[in-house]
Amino acid sequence: MPDLKPTQDLQNSLDKVASIYTEALAKPAADLLMTETGIITFVGGGIARVKGLPDAFSEEVLLFPGNVLGITLNLGVEEIGVILLGDDPKIKAGEVVRRTGHVADTPVGDALLGRVVDATGKVLDGGSQLNIHTRMPMEREAPAIMDRAPVKVPLQTGIKSIDALIPIGRGQRELIVGDRQTGKTSVAIDTIINQRGTEMICIYCAIGQRGTAVARVVETFREAKMLEQTIVVVTSGEDQPGLQYMTPYAATTMAEWFRDQGKPVLIVYDDLIRHARAYRELSLLLRRAPGREAFPGDIFYIHSRLLERSTQLSVALGGGSMTALPIIETQAEDISAYIPTNLVSITDGQIYLSPGLFRKGLLPAVDTGRSVSRVGGKAQLPAYREVAGDLRLSYSQFEELEAFARFASRLDDESQAAITRGKRVREVLKQAEHKPLTVIQQIAMLKAVNEGLFDQVELDQLAKTQQKIATALDTQMKPLATKVDAGKKLSDADWQSLMDFLIGVIKG
Ligand SMILES: Nc1ncnc2c1ncn2[C@@H]1O[C@H](COP(=O)(O)OP(=O)(O)OP(=O)(O)O)[C@@H](O)[C@H]1O
């Protein structure tokens, strides 16, 4: 009988194999990476249709060839409709698409300040990559009613005609509306520039604009030393409509991050008509039923859910605020077109810029009769309210009187005086671009014109006189300025000292 006992060497090898098996079995099994994949059935015009992803959810991010991202928009039984955020020639029908299981998100944080980025966080200013690891969904729910507080703090635009006649408060949504080239962007940019030195964080969201126009805006911020406090979020007209559509939501998420930390934020959407058009393009390609002006049925909802996210939060939630200035371009002054009326009804007021006033050189071309601020009046600083009180009414009375006076050969003294005063008010409300005024400067000009101190000054000399007042105020009226900025009422003695100062400068 041969000896069947293993040799020592064989025994050692068997033990080794056994220990390897025991060790391997003791380890947790490796996770299997499961990804659902679908097949592209159509691609073109910035959208794709995909088959074979029955579990994909609404607004889920899908990964296309070439790492292009897509977002699901139409969930059909057979096929799903996807908007593409990028462009790649490799994307063809028949290629594979992967689910990611998460919704579209965007980077948030302090590192975005001073930068120019797109909706996905891609750096567009040629600078270093963003060092940000926190991302938040582009689409988020608006704060609940009980988490909101009334609009009480003013947001100074630095533009006399707006701060005096159509005041805006923090947390308000005020539409800037007008035909092309009427100064819409300038009003928004000047409002941002006027926030320099305050704690306000500003977001300028350019949708479907020319690259040169955006570069000019960025340069204006840089020159005004406002870029460090601002984030510029851009999609150009050449970008995919899907990216243009998502950009304002992403910009709002970036703003919310600051708002939720208790900071005040100002966000400008320039402009939402381009946003609506991008969405119309996508919807038509995705074969959604067209409605009025070929816009899809949910066109109102895309803007209302965007603007609902702007608000003044309650103290319990940190007291942060997000003020929105959406811009809308009208055609042939038709404010009752579909998208402009939708936005007028969503927002808390509108600043209407008139091409007629622009042509006459009355800049900024704010048409006070067609502009309104539904909540901001309550937020006006007390001292400001005293001088701006009934300016709106008296100014519109003057405009009527002036129109009537064109036909009348002789006017009584009272009407003549009202016209003299009104013309000076109109001159005082004129303001150059990128020259925002402080609150005390505005109060001083309005006080001077209200009290008739400018009645004897020639119209063509008024700009010079105002300049003199503005310069002298900076050095001579500092305590008064501090009092006004602190939201205090001015006493009779304060008003008298302002009058004495004004008389002195005008005479001097
Ligand atoms: N207060 C102002 N004083 C002098 N010029 C101004 C003023 N506001 C605007 N402008 C000039 O008017 C022109 C149009 O302004 P802006 O680009 O802001 O208008 P817009 O309505 O936004 O134009 P678009 O239709 O191109 O969007 C610009 O050349 C700008 O410099």
TrEMBL record:
<dbReference type="InterPro" id="IPR036121">
    <property type="entry name" value="ATPase_F1/V1/A1_a/bsu_N_sf"/>
</dbReference>
<dbReference type="InterPro" id="IPR017710">
    <property type="entry name" value="Alt_ATP_synth_F1_asu"/>
</dbReference>
<feature type="domain" description="ATP synthase alpha subunit C-terminal">
    <location>
        <begin position="380"/>
        <end position="500"/>
    </location>
</feature>
<protein>
    <recommendedName>
        <fullName>ATP synthase subunit alpha</fullName>
        <ecNumber>7.1.2.2</ecNumber>
    </recommendedName>
</protein>
<comment type="subunit">
    <text>F-type ATPases have 2 components, CF(1) - the catalytic core - and CF(0) - the membrane proton channel. CF(1) has five subunits: alpha(3), beta(3), gamma(1), delta(1), epsilon(1). CF(0) has four main subunits: a(1), b(1), b'(1) and c(9-12).</text>
</comment>
<keyword id="KW-1003">Cell membrane</keyword>
<dbReference type="Pfam" id="PF00306">
    <property type="entry name" value="ATP-synt_ab_C"/>
</dbReference>
<dbReference type="InterPro" id="IPR000194">
    <property type="entry name" value="ATPase_F1/V1/A1_a/bsu_nucl-bd"/>
</dbReference>
<keyword id="KW-0472">Membrane</keyword>
<dbReference type="GO" id="GO:0045259">
    <property type="term" value="C:proton-transporting ATP synthase complex"/>
</dbReference>
<dbReference type="Pfam" id="PF00006">
    <property type="entry name" value="ATP-synt_ab"/>
</dbReference>
<dbReference type="InterPro" id="IPR027417">
    <property type="entry name" value="P-loop_NTPase"/>
</dbReference>
<dbReference type="GO" id="GO:0005524">
    <property type="term" value="F:ATP binding"/>
</dbReference>
<keyword id="KW-0139">CF(1)</keyword>
<dbReference type="InterPro" id="IPR004100">
    <property type="entry name" value="ATPase_F1/V1/A1_a/bsu_N"/>
</dbReference>
<dbReference type="GO" id="GO:0016787">
    <property type="term" value="F:hydrolase activity"/>
</dbReference>
<keyword id="KW-0066">ATP synthesis</keyword>
<feature type="binding site">
    <location>
        <begin position="178"/>
        <end position="185"/>
    </location>
    <ligand>
        <name>ATP</name>
    </ligand>
</feature>
<dbReference type="GO" id="GO:0005886">
    <property type="term" value="C:plasma membrane"/>
</dbReference>
<dbReference type="InterPro" id="IPR038376">
    <property type="entry name" value="ATP_synth_asu_C_sf"/>
</dbReference>
<feature type="site" description="Required for activity">
    <location>
        <position position="371"/>
    </location>
</feature>
<dbReference type="InterPro" id="IPR023366">
    <property type="entry name" value="ATP_synth_asu-like_sf"/>
</dbReference>
<keyword id="KW-1278">Translocase</keyword>
<keyword id="KW-0406">Ion transport</keyword>
<keyword id="KW-0375">Hydrogen ion transport</keyword>
<keyword id="KW-0547">Nucleotide-binding</keyword>
<keyword id="KW-0067">ATP-binding</keyword>
<dbReference type="GO" id="GO:0043531">
    <property type="term" value="F:ADP binding"/>
</dbReference>
<keyword id="KW-0813">Transport</keyword>
<dbReference type="InterPro" id="IPR020003">
    <property type="entry name" value="ATPase_a/bsu_AS"/>
</dbReference>
<feature type="domain" description="ATPase F1/V1/A1 complex alpha/beta subunit N-terminal">
    <location>
        <begin position="36"/>
        <end position="101"/>
    </location>
</feature>
<dbReference type="InterPro" id="IPR000793">
    <property type="entry name" value="ATP_synth_asu_C"/>
</dbReference>
<dbReference type="InterPro" id="IPR005294">
    <property type="entry name" value="ATP_synth_F1_asu"/>
</dbReference>
<comment type="similarity">
    <text>Belongs to the ATPase alpha/beta chains family. T3SS ATPase subfamily.</text>
</comment>
<dbReference type="Pfam" id="PF02874">
    <property type="entry name" value="ATP-synt_ab_N"/>
</dbReference>
<comment type="function">
    <text>Produces ATP from ADP in the presence of a proton gradient across the membrane. The alpha chain is a regulatory subunit.</text>
</comment>
<dbReference type="InterPro" id="IPR033732">
    <property type="entry name" value="ATP_synth_F1_a_nt-bd_dom"/>
</dbReference>
<dbReference type="GO" id="GO:0046933">
    <property type="term" value="F:proton-transporting ATP synthase activity, rotational mechanism"/>
</dbReference>
<keyword id="KW-0378">Hydrolase</keyword>
<feature type="domain" description="ATPase F1/V1/A1 complex alpha/beta subunit nucleotide-binding">
    <location>
        <begin position="158"/>
        <end position="373"/>
    </location>
</feature>
